[in-house]
Amino acid sequence: MRAYVALGANLGDAKATVEQAMGALDGLAQTRVVARSSMYRSAPFEASGPDFYNAVVALESGLDPVALLAELQRLESQAGRERPYRNAPRTLDLDLLLHGACALDTPALTLPHPRMLQRAFVLLPLAEIAPDLVTPQQIAAVATQAIERI
Fold this sequence. Notes:
Layout: E1 2-9, H1 14-26, E2 31-36, E3 40-42, E4 52-61, H2 65-78, E5 93-99, E6 104-105, E7 110-111, H3 120-129, H4 136-141, E8 147-149
Antiparallel strand pairs: 1-4, 1-5, 2-4, 3-4, 3-8, 6-7
């Protein structure tokens, strides 16, 4: 199943952490990275702290959405992720954006990701690797958000 994961970090060596996480995703059971966006730097959006480093990867995975989410959360924990409050600065954030055509709304997981269309740091890298999933209108709607491809 094709899945898309957004990666972000803004604590520690954030760029290196995002790059390492892309490699770790490729090492998950029944999963391989089939596309990687460029790295982007963005100002915090609905968050605080230093700028974020962001990317999006496409995965082919035999894991169901809940199992994949559990693996993403495990990788976040290994990177020292803490959740002291909503949108706190983070060592690593892995968001499951899409998992095939799955539509899901549970307390633990909502698919498609409910805020992905509001975030330039998701849409620009996603459009780079899956242009058919992002419209010009969606990109225009986030054009005022500070982000740069690096």
